[in-house]
């Protein structure tokens, strides 16, 4: 058991070193550690092969598919296309963003407020999570493209009248 724990520790150190060489700063997003950041980089690959965050969302299976003809149709969840490993990583990351701590505070208040807004609009919890995943795709795309640090957006509060 000790041997396996030492091996895991050495692999994690090597992973941190290799990730640092890439220059990405995805671990600055709340809920992302080095292992998750490495998983995102591994599943996305070279970010420059995607010309827009919409193409990355389609690759991840987060973009809706439109079925229709003659101006009629509907959008459905993309269940069969895309990188399912990237989708599951984004799904758990979205869960982390709306997660409430033991004190009842949101880990990321902006995403929690957005989630609650989508629920109040009549979306299911899964649909609201997919909306958050789309937002995360845009943030991750920009961060990987420009190699910048994540800045937590300011939550706009509605003043009571």
From TrEMBL:
GO terms for molecular function: DNA binding; transposase activity. It comes from the Bacteria. It holds the Pfam family Transposase_20. This is Transposase. Residues 25-102 form the Transposase IS116/IS110/IS902 C-terminal domain. GO terms for biological process: DNA transposition. InterPro entries: RuvA_2-like, Transpos_IS110, Transposase_20.
